[in-house]
Amino acid sequence: MAEILNLDELSNVVKQFQFKGQIHDICEISLGDFITMTSEQKAMEKKLEKGGITQEELVLNYRKNILRVIPTMTDETLDLMTVRQLKTLLDFINTAAIDQQVVEEHAKK
């Protein structure tokens, strides 16, 4: 009988962070979601530099990306964060996704 690797058993939690005393899980995202998320973020930042969007629009994009990967996060909790905290959290999420990608590439070798 062939050996079966059950990928469904793997935990999808790649990192955690604490905010207002609550621990939140950052869950894995697909490669497609990662590409979409980082592309949107870079496009929004370029538009902001050129004056094409407002800071508020950029923050709303951050919010959307954060909610994609943190199932326990609510709009109300996000509203308590400063812009700097949102940006830091998004950078942390991006690092988690890159770490995940590196592990996956290494596993292929």
Radius of gyration: 16 Å
Cα end-to-end separation: 25 Å
- The count of β-strands is 2
- Note the quaternary state here: single chain
What is the makeup of the main sheet?
Answer: 2 strands, antiparallel
How would you describe what is shown here?
The protein has a two-stranded antiparallel ribbon. Helices cover 60% and strands 12% of the residues. It has one domain. It has helices spanning 31-49, 55-69, 75-79, 83-108; strands at residues 13-19, 22-27. It is mainly alpha-helical. Helix 1 packs antiparallel against helix 2 and helix 2 (55-69) packs across helix 4 (83-108). The chain contains 4 helices and 2 strands. The two termini are 25 Å apart. Strand 1 (13-19) and strand 2 form a beta hairpin. The relative contact order is 0.16. The mean pLDDT is 82.
Outline the secondary-structure elements.
Elements (H helix, E strand, L loop, with lengths): L12 E7 L2 E6 L3 H19 L5 H15 L5 H5 L3 H26 L1
Antiparallel strand pairs: 1-2
Helix pairs in contact: 1-2, 2-4
Give a brief description.
By secondary structure, the chain is mainly alpha-helical. The protein has helices at residues 31-49, 55-69, 75-79, 83-108, and strands spanning 13-19, 22-27. The protein has four helices and two strands; from the N terminus they run E-E-H-H-H-H.
